[in-house]
């Protein structure tokens, strides 16, 4: 028996213990962070093991729901927690290489980012969800401006403006729900959602949808993404792509399915997702900087997940969750690799990276990640896209699926262009990567390949997804 | 009803300020107005005409809903910290670019 609250308490406790540890050993702070994230990963595995048997509901302070705050973790929540904890742990190993001054504050913020993202996934109370969203956002704002240069600051200010408007909208949605139902507990709201005035319900849902859409990189609200991904340190960008983005998209999914009990095909969501895919892929195609290309590609991938959720059949939602898993791993890997490549080439332009991935220690993981993102069969990314497409065919959304497949061709073109340059004959010698640089990439690549060849465990976790769509936890 | 209308009007004015102004400080003032509007909305949801403070000892049968107060306290704290962070980012940006107009910053940051 493991209480989900441990997953929040552990990183929170150590985040504020780090300054004390830093007083007598500055270097030690980094290793403490890696250790904490490792323990968090073990806790996430134990939690997933438990929620596979039955949903876990943790009553904070011993109040009986709907009074008091509860944490509630179902299968999908456990799965998302595991994705976030795994990415955080592997990226923290990479952090040992990137010496970010001041070390203590950097590690504090990354622990808080982990805590906020995990909290958003496992909470069962909508106001608590808002608080965790804000913790995540504030930690993100700090990390986004971490380089303290003009680019970092200008990316961060866009993020702050959009992010705080988004969270105000989340709060408006929560206020409207509370005004009508006088409760904040997600399951209690779900039971009584029919008592709400239909117009107020629609406005509340739209506010929450827009609010979480900012963090989930949904189309009209994602103008912060390229600036932040361009200006932030590389390890931070990896974290952004795999942690807060995933937890807010899960929050979106829970709003749609668990709280508001929508089911079936949602035109609005599916089409917004499709536009996001198109926007991301087209603009990524036009980029000449590696990190910006990856940032826009990330928008495209998030659009696929939103589209999968919007199509709303069991298969497409299963595909969307698979896509979350595949994208978190592959994009985190690619951003880590981009960090090394930019360091080795001393330029951000793709055309300068001639032959930089020739070194198999970097090249092999990069190729695996790209193929997985493109949806090639023996890798994790394949199942995500394949099931979204199958689900779309099930729902008879042929037009959307056709346009979706057309958009993914653009993706193939720009990744192929990058591979062509990066694997060409090197024009000069590049520094070879250190173990802390290539080991995290290797870990991600191994996970991508292993679960690509043996997807059965993931399908077992996702097997109850149809219950989630019908309003389960 | 008038409370709801007023607080939503404040939110709308805040969004207008954020969209139309080109100066970062004014944009942040707009964000603060949105925050205040949402907080007022929450408070007015819990308001009961003629209600007193929520003390349950039988003497005051009519009291306001205390939960929105707790929510607003949390939201105010969060809002203040976001404002502080936003202002510090603006200070950093000003040190690097020497301006607060976003059009000029866009030209300087490449």
Write up this protein.
The complex is a heterodimer of chains A (473) and B (110). By secondary structure, chain A is an all-alpha fold. Chain A has a domain at 263-473. Helix content of chain A is 75%, strand content 2%. Chain A has helices at residues 5-24, 28-51, 75-95, 103-122, 126-144, 150-181, 186-192, 198-215, 224-231, 234-242, 244-259, 267-285, 290-311, 314-345, 360-374, 380-394, 398-422, 435-453, 456-462, 465-469; strands at residues 56-59, 70-73. Chain A has a two-stranded antiparallel sheet with strand order 1-2. The longest helix of chain A is centred in the middle third of the chain and has 32 residues, at 150-181. Chain A is globular, with a radius of gyration of 21 Å. Chain B is mainly α and 110 residues long. The longest helix of chain B is centred in the last third of the chain and has 32 residues, at 66-97. Chain B is elongated and about 65 Å long. Chain B has one domain: Helix Hairpins (Orthogonal Bundle). In chain B, helix 1 runs antiparallel to helix 2 (24-46). Classes of the chains: A mainly alpha (473), B mainly alpha (110). The A-B interface holds A 127, 131, 134, 137-138, 141-142, 145, 148-151, 153-154, 156-157, 160-161, 164-165, 167-168, 171-172, 174-175, 178-179, 182, 184 and B 11, 15, 18, 24, 27, 31, 34-35, 37-38, 41-42, 45, 65, 67-68, 71, 74-75, 78-79, 81-82, 85-86, 89-90, 92-93, 96-97, 105-106, 108-109.
List the defining traits of the structure above.
heterodimer; A: 473 residues; mainly alpha; two-stranded antiparallel sheet; 20 helices; B: 110 residues; Helix Hairpins; 4 helices
In short:
The complex is a heterodimer of chains A (473) and B (110). With 473 residues, chain A is an all-alpha fold.
